[in-house]
Amino acid sequence: MQHSKIEFGQATPIETRTGTKTTYLPSLGLTLVDARQTAAIDALLGPGRRTAFFMNAHCCNLMAADAKYAQAVRRADVLLPDGIGVKLAGMMTGDTLAANLNGTDLVPALLAQAADMGKSVYLFGGTPGTAKVAAATLTTSIPHLQVAGTRDGFVGALDPQLVIADINASGADIVIVAMGVPMQEMWIDRYANQLNASLCLGVGAALDFLAGNVSRAPKVVQNANMEWVWRLAQEPKRLAKRYLVGNFTFLARAASKAIAHTPKQHIATRIMDVAISSLALVALAPVFAATAIAIRMESDGPALFQQTRIGKNGARFTMLKFRSMYQDAEARQAEVNAASDREGVCFKARKDPRITRVGRFIRRTSIDELPQIINVLRGEMSIVGPRPALPKEVAQYPTRAFGRLAVKPGITGIWQVSGRADVGFNEMVEMDLAYASSRTVMLDLILILLTFRAVVSGRGAY
């Protein structure tokens, strides 16, 4: 599903226009951009005309209470995910989004790229003087940015036709509207088709941040996805209801929709995943610590290895493992490709010179896979499922192999208990397709029990 507002945009859908993905989240009933910031900006500044809104937990709560606002949101060309709440709502149905595209971070980056393209911007909104101060901040950090005009969102917004005439006379290519939710979205929905600008973007408090009216949370708080706590501490009276009551209401509503959308089999599987991985994380803590120490003692580099893998429906995620190779392993891949002992797409070599001594032991005992318990808790993987594939492997898939991406990848599965690396690629694909079409909780439990036998035997573990 994709948004394309014909009466304004007249543009082809965002995904086919730039290659930027969109993902439908059943828990929200919305289709959101599923891309990193750079790709999202490329899409927003691409050919055609479009409206774009940021969607966070508060926006979704307002949609539930205000039918006109909800209609305006659904008529927008582009919806951008903003905040930890949207991420959590996606995880409820196993959907992961590539990035948090909040307006405070995205707007300056978008305008920097717009300046490089020779595009100008009009800043509309905020208290009197806020847009002008924000413009000064932007032109200081982006000297070649063309600010076509500014206008406040109070007295300056009283006559919409004067606003429209002023924006069009300025020749602005981009209009930034900062009047707060839902007023800015309602204004854009009603008047964007009268503007000559190619992009009309509702940005909430972004101008206040740029003008210094509101301070950003420290980086450590931002990185922890806890910026809402910082905002609440700054304005407790105004934001208490929005964040404390609102966040609970949002998550409860999203969970209700997720449960209604999710088959009982998937709910049972997720409950089992969370229960087993939570217990395992606690019980295996000493093993985690000892393994990390052993890895660091033998070779330089971090104990954990992070690698991009392809998950359910082609979604990318960062898979965690204990590092079993020397740090330059990926750079030396070309040297060992010819030594693969497995036919087909996936590389595996019994005598890979890049593997450390500790690495051989933790591979033989499957200890290297244990950090994927964290991926399971995140909702990116399941305890049982197909082997998570590398992007370069998926790029070489024959058509039939894509069927293995219909379910979440797993720490263990049919191929793991049937010989792991001794199983050829084509045989592995057939096993995964059979599993995807007939999976049950009972089958998963049987495969988990068989995994212990496979670990003891060590067959195919290299």
Helix content: 40-55%
Strand content: 5-15%
Main sheet overview: 6 strands, parallel
Widest sheet, order of strands = 4-3-8-7-5-6
The average pLDDT is 87
**Radius of gyration, CA atoms, in whole angstroms:** 25 Å
Tally of contiguous helical segments:
22
Oligomer description:
single chain
Tally of structural domains: 2
Structural class: alpha/beta
End-to-end gap: 42 Å
Low-confidence segments: 1-13
The tally of beta strands, per DSSP, is: 12
Transmembrane segments: 274-295
Organism: Yoonia phaeophyticola
Family: Belongs to the bacterial sugar transferase family.
Protein name: WecB/TagA/CpsF family glycosyltransferase
Notable characteristics:
462 residues; alpha/beta; 6-stranded parallel sheet; 22 helices; 48% helix; elongated; transmembrane helix; WecB/TagA/CpsF family glycosyltransferase; Bact_transf
Describe the model:
- This protein has 2 domains: 14-254, no CATH class; 264-457, no CATH class.
- Helices cover 48% and strands 13% of the residues.
- The chain is built from 22 helices and 12 strands.
- The strands form 4 sheets. A 6-stranded parallel beta sheet has the order 4-3-8-7-5-6, with helices on both faces.
- Strand 9 (304-310) and strand 10 form a beta hairpin.
- Helix 4 (67-75) crosses helix 9 (183-191).
- The longest helix has 26 residues, at 236-261.
- The radius of gyration is 25 Å and the shape is elongated.
- The model is unreliable at 1-13 (pLDDT under 50).
